[in-house]
Amino acid sequence: MTGALSGIRVLDLSRVLAGPWASQTLADLGAEVIKIERPGAGDDTRGWGPPYAKDANGKDTTEAAYYLSANRGKKSLTVDITRSEGQEIIRNLAARSDVVIENFKVGGLAKYGLDYASLRAVNPALIYCSITGFGQDGPYKDRPGYDFMIQAMGGLMSLTGAPDSEPGGQPVKVGVAVADIFTGLYATIGILAALHHRQAGGEGQYIDLALLDVQTAILANQAMNYLTTGTAPGRLGNAHPNIVPYEAFPTADGYLILAVGNDSQFKSFCAVAGLVGVAGDDRFATNRARVANRAALVPLVRGAMVQKTTDQWIDLLETANVPCGPINTLDRVFDNPQVQHRATVRNLDHPTAGTVPTVANPLKFSATPIVYDTAPPMLGQHSDAVLREVAGLSDEQIARLRAAGMI
Fold first, then answer.
1. What is the pLDDT of residue 324?
2. Going from the N-terminus, what domains does the chain have, and what CATH number goes with each?
3. Which of 42, 128, 91, 116 is nearest to 392 (CA)?
4. Which 8-state DSSP code applies to residue 46?
5. Across the beta sheet with 246-250, what order do the strands follow?
6. Is 210 helix (H, G, I), strand (E, B) or coil?
């Protein structure tokens, strides 16, 4: 193991996306991640298909693409944590681990003696990260939380989609589970900070992370737009609340994202687009003025954009250093020469599928590069090895646990 987190062991009791995204990121960074799963069933996302990975004959395997997206680099150990023998296995592993990640409901692991207080008793240096919908306290603490509802409750859907005044205008969720993914990234950040604190002479600690807190935090400038004015921003479709022109515009054969971020870029755009006198017009000369006069400017830009094709605009605007880009479908994304040059897709050896693709971690390290050599594990693939090598159980003990349906 040569990653930046080589020597760190993570016990992952989470499932679905937020927790597994965090543990996959830690695995990418070199940590040993032991994924604890229910015997015979495993992570819910194993069955969230189609699509599924295909075997050599083109038939579906048991591994859903959803599961494959968030579980590379891990070891799978099946344990029945509802039984005392299973609980003892988890405590044994926690005593030998640095981090625990779990996303059970509030108090859900206490009845099994696997909550922070119980595991801290066997490992005071343990960093224990709990992920829930609403946090460990407050009036909503006992409610379940799912990404879709959190995007709605956390305000994101009030900002996403066309205005009611436009055809089809309605609140829209983001096409990827961003509340879960951002929560996974915040969990990773928190765990890394806690590891540094411990290494600097501190102690282990508990991290309470809530999807609603994360969703609210990532409202970013839109949150501040509200907090500084008292007026809740609404949906603007593809337009930006603070920058103009910064949206999708129709071209002669499709659409193009125009992302004019400053006054110099706007002048360059006007010169290329043939908008004579527009850049010098007091209504449009500065971004502040353009935001105030959005309704007058946008039709002028639209009128110019429809005169050329998307590719013609890209050639012209890139030469003029005006940020722009096409709206790519995923086939075009992965065919993009820049995406391919950055080795974004890697193929991993898999026991039943032969190989499975994975989307590489975007971090590029010079000294501790990420190694892509372990596909998302089959259910219980590493049970014997983990129990033998980490928990210290004998082959006879492992056989007895298996016969009892414990693993």
1. 97
2. 9-218+341-403 (3.40.50.10540), 246-327 (3.30.1540.10)
3. 91
4. G
5. 246-250, 255-259, 324-326
6. strand
Which secondary-structure segment (H or E) carries 197?
Answer: helix 178-199
Query: Mind listing the pLDDT tens digit for each residue in 327-350?
Result: 999 999 999 999 999 999 999 999
The tens digit of pLDDT for each residue in 1-40 reads 579 999 999 999 999 999 999 999 999 999 999 999 999 9
Supply the DSSP symbol for 111: G
* Closest to 46 measured CA to CA, from 12, 75, 18, 69: 69
Q: Which residue has the tokens 């944590």?
A: 81
DSSP letter (8 states) at residue 308 = S
What's the CA angle centered on 347, arms 345 and 348, to 5 degrees?
Answer: 135
Q: Which residues are part of the catalytic machinery?
A: 180
- Does the pTM exceed 0.70? yes
Buried b (16+ CB within 10 A) or exposed e, 4-29: bbeebbbbbbbbbbbbbbbbbbbbbb
